[in-house]
TrEMBL record:
This is RNA-binding protein KhpB. Forms a complex with KhpA. It is found in: Cytoplasm. One of its GO terms (cellular component) is cytoplasm. It comes from Halanaerobium hydrogeniformans (Halanaerobium sp. (strain sapolanicus)). GO terms for molecular function: RNA binding. Residues 144-210 form the R3H domain. A probable RNA chaperone. Forms a complex with KhpA which binds to cellular RNA and controls its expression. Plays a role in peptidoglycan (PG) homeostasis and cell length regulation.
Length: 211
């Protein structure tokens, strides 16, 4: 339900009821007063209810933050959600999850839980939009640390492939992590990389060029 028409004794009462039923705050709603109503004579004769129409305005950045906060609340985790303004514009948003003791739970094994949270948030936001809106979810810089780890891994295995003159096979990785490996390998002139297999078991292969 994206819009609703409500009758009440006053405009304020009608608006509050409509906002409650839509589950939105006033900032995320478009309010149209159809009839301001009338108290009538002595509040009895000729009294008429106010009528308003309230439409839910979908703001992807705000809605995504609310979705994440509700998700975390249901998991009983003490995690704060913030919007990273420097990485947010009209085409994308980046959220950062902050916490002391439970941050590892939202990251998961090699970021798998964090990836799932990002995927769900992206689906939630984009189902309401016509144009794709990119959604990034990080946790206290985890993604940058993971990228650096993968780049070091690519360097080490590229050296191994060149030194031993044989193909090196990495463990299965999600697409965005394989991409980090491929980009790093492209910087080198003595090895190449490619992917083989089907998701979710697709792997990166690194081979020496002059094998």
């Amino acid at each position: 339900m994206k819009n609703i028409k409500i009758k009440a004794k006053t405009v304020d009462d009608a608006v509050e009821e409509a906002l409650s039923k839509l589950g939105v705050k006033r900032d995320n709603a478009k309010i149209k007063i159809i009839d301001e109503g009338s108290k009538g004579i002595f509040g009895l004769i000729g009294a008429k209810d106010a009528v308003v129409e309230v439409e839910k305005v979908f703001k992807p950045i705000d809605e995504g933050k609310l979705f994440l906060e509700n998700l975390i609340e249901k998991a009983n985790l003490e995690i704060e959600v913030e919007v990273v303004d420097s990485e947010t514009d009209e085409e994308q948003v980046q959220y950062n999850l902050k916490g002391q003791k439970e941050l590892g739970l939202v990251i998961g094994h090699r970021g798998e839980t964090l990836d799932a949270i990002q995927y769900l948030t992206s689906i939630y936001i984009n189902k309401e939009l016509d144009d794709y809106f990119r959604v990034l979810v990080d946790a206290e810089g985890y993604r940058d640390r993971r990228r650096q780890t993968l780049e070091r891994l690519a360097d080490r295995l590229a050296d191994k492939a060149k030194r031993k003159q044989r193909k090196v096979v990495l463990e299965p990785m999600p697409p965005h992590e394989r991409r980090i490996i491929h980009i790093k390998i492209k910087e080198k002139n003595n090895v190449k990389s490619y992917s083989e297999g089907q998701e979710p078991y697709r792997k990166v292969m690194i081979e020496p060029l002059d094998k």
